[in-house]
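Please go through this chain and its backbone structure tokens and walk me through the local backbone shapes. Keep your notes short.
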Amino acid sequence: MTRRHFRHEAPATARDRGGGTGVASTRTVISVYPPARRHRESGFTLVEVLIVLVIMGVLVALVTVPVNSYWQRARTETTAGDIRNFLQQAFTESINQRTPINVTLHIGAGIQTLTLTPAPLRSPGTYTIPDFVKVVSANTNWPPDSGDWKLICDTFGRAIDPTGQQVRSTQTIAITHIRMADGSLTPSVRYDVQVFPVWNVTVRKTVL
């Protein structure tokens, strides 16, 4: 039989007296310390997991909104650049084809287009404005013509209105993202594609 050892053992002597005869005996007195408290098992409680998920959700929301806004602004700015390049072709084509180029802005049901007539010799004559872009009518001042808006680039490189008169002020097509237009995405940014009286096209950015 194997004897168990404890942390502290102390010998003690006791004398038993009985019947006039003293009997000495020795026994071991054992001191037993209370068991150490068990450590809590490792792991997470449901409350802790929920707290972490809530914090992660807040952080994702804080990051997603600015990133999404930046992405939509970048897409709209790219579209403004595409419109600018398309309109600038009117000047080049008026020289190459030796004829005035009509530039028509059409806003119909679900479609917004720009058209060059006659069409360029080496590129499409129509540019379809993406559906995530809204033309801001309040800031667009192209001359109206039979329900559309029209400018003409003559062979001298001048911007002419439908009546045949040279325009005296900068003509603008204002665009923004549809979600910025309805206020669901901020900050709201507008891009003004500007045609000057002597045909030259630029883009101006305005933070609203």
Remarks:
- The domain at 46-207 is CATH 3.55.40.10 (minor pseudopilin epsh fold).
- Residues 5-18 have pLDDT under 50 and may be disordered.
- The longest strand covers residues 8-18.
